Fold this sequence. Notes:
The protein has helices at residues 2-7, 21-51, 58-87, 94-127, 132-135, 138-164, 181-187, 193-200, 202-226, 231-241, 243-259, 268-292, 295-309; strands at residues 11-14, 91-93, 173-174. With 312 residues, it is mostly helical. α4 runs parallel beside α9.
Amino acid sequence: xRAANRSSVSEFLLLGLSRQPQQQQLLFLLxxxxxxxxxxxxxxxxxxxSTDARLRxxxxxxxxxxxxxxxxxxxxxxxxxxANHILGSHTISYPGCLTQMYFVFLFVDMDNFLxxxxxxxxxxxxxxxxxxxxxxxxxxxxxLVSGSRVVASLNALLHTLLMARLSFCADNAIxxxxxxxxxxLKLSCSDTRLNRLMILTExxxxxxxxxxxxxxxxxxxxxxxxxxxxxxxxxxxFSTCGSHPAMVCLFYGTxxxxxxxxxxxxxxxxxxxxxxxxxVVTPMLNPFVYSLRNRDLKAALRRVVPRQMSFY
Length: 312
């Protein structure tokens, strides 16, 4: 009976960001512009870090990893929305929906872990500057990134397999612009208690543990910076990592609002708006925020752009 129920839904209908035709064209142009800015900005940062010998520190290595993840993250959801608008079709197959959900989980977790790793890197650089080179070795940096990928992949696989065991009956309309776990659980006609329990327990640990590490790192950083006697030194330290907490608050704030609130307080419109912030807006803002006050990165970007233009 479960197999019959599951096979009765071979595809889902993504209702998108808006159901009003007059708003869809505007949202299409906005999404297209945002996606192009995300891809261009993040790829430029990754290119600058990989080609400039002066950007060989762990901070830039982690930033380039974050940029690559953000490109993949946006590419998991936005191109499908754009293609659906152009083709006039809003369907996604059942396997395609689960695949998209897997990669959304994967890249959200990778963003989560990389933000924590970047906070730890800044903590070591500011609080233990004399030991920075000895502690943040290339081997440790590679292990941190590899470990993040492994844990993120296993977590994404867990939630995807839990979703695959559920049955979906008559209703296949997802009030969202991608296959997110919360609206899919609402559509299921199976018992979803195990899925919700894993989100609130294992999922909470995956998200909250790095968040606590970030908070602890920045509390210690703030204490160390306030002890610097020179105002210029304090300003330099804050400008090095001051943009990071803003992106952390935006990223974690929206995720907590969507996934760790009581289900009764969820509305499709609010969830869609909140997920749009961390799936579309945050990846676009990362390149601008992290390069805004970074002279070395801005100089590297100025060297990269003319070099790329010369090929045309």
